[in-house]
Amino acid sequence: MTTLIVNAQVVNENQVQYLDVVIENGHIKKIGKDLQHTVADRVIDAKGLYLMPGVIDDQVHFREPGLTHKANIYTESKAAVAGGVTSFMEMPNTVPNTLTQELLEDKYQIGANTSLANYSFFMGASNDNYDEVMRTDPTQVCGIKIFMGSSTGNMLVDAPEVLEKLFANAPCIIATHCEDEPTVKARMAYFKEKYGDDVPYDIHALIRNEEACLKSSTFASSLAHKHGTRLHILHISTGDEVHLFEVGNRSNGKILLANGQPKLVTAEACVHHLWFDAEDYRRLGNDIKCNPAIKAPHHKEAILQAVLDNRIDVIATDHAPHTIEEKAQHYWQAPSGLPLVQHTLNVMLELSRAGKITIDRVAEKMSHAVADLFNIDRRGYIREGYWADLILVDTNATTQVEKANIYSKCGWSPFEGTEFHSRITHTFVSGHLVQENGKFDETVKGKRLKFSR
To answer: What are the residue boundaries of the Amidohydrolase-related domain, all occurrences included (predicted)?
Structure first.
């Protein structure tokens, strides 16, 4: 089917301009002015709407296999495309942990059969699967995930000799969760002794504090510089850490330093660390309990500034759903993680509306830079010949978040009761119109991401 989109305000590569776009055979065939006479099977008049490249979320936990009472790849990919996320990269702390190439391919098969969005899956590292990690094909897999902090199952990598080998020989980019485990454990023991069950509202930020994050991020960064490793540090949650990262820019599909050299260590910010702060624990409690923790208000501002000055390169979610019942437990028992993927773009557009970031920078941090950082083949931009991963957004409409319109299997959101001043009206995944004004066409599944490495 050929689709013609006319009268759109196209947000792409640091510009916003009125253009028409032709989609054919899954790809963007033509971009230009006055293409309304093009013969097409379907014409969409996008007057008053923004046309943006689909969001690429480089960090999600979709819980399949093994934890499907919380979520699965089908339900969470549906939430993703509802919110304008057309591609995702999913983490290995499922059950069983994704620690072999065979288990990794099992997840790709689930994605091929059920995902409404394009997909890739990280290969997991542990203290004892070095040989399996080395078998990773960098053209077919987004990266290698190392938990330098506690995680599900056998995924904490804390053996110094293993970390040295992984950083010295990784076949592709390493992505790390950075929290110093001894610091976290010591602080947890201290606060359990001090408070017992009568914990202060912001205890999570006190336990998983700035020191734990900075110590681990500094160590990971030092390993990367020692071995010349491409390192991507996930979910930066403190202003203390941003000095670890150099100011960069994008050129010819690469993330570069000011001197034109490739940026060795890149970083990610997540929407919840830009939207919430520690004062929100009073209202939301365990619903915003996550690792690394949401911290004091000044960190939120420092992280946003680091996004704007290109010390932090991309914006993602770390979408990690749990059931309502699990979250309702006492603090010490409640798991960490929250569902975010359906409203990630709404959050950033709300910050744009408030004048904190421009809409073209939103597209840069959520689409262009992710594609460049991971060397994704022909995605992340609105360019002729690229895959048509596109979204139409109405910033004159609203999205009211309530349980009835949440697609994540867990059925709740920390944004419940929030009215966002934007609505994602259309979502194209590899040229297929999968979502239009809340109606889904699930007849075509997303595609496996490929990497030009």
So the answer is: 50-434
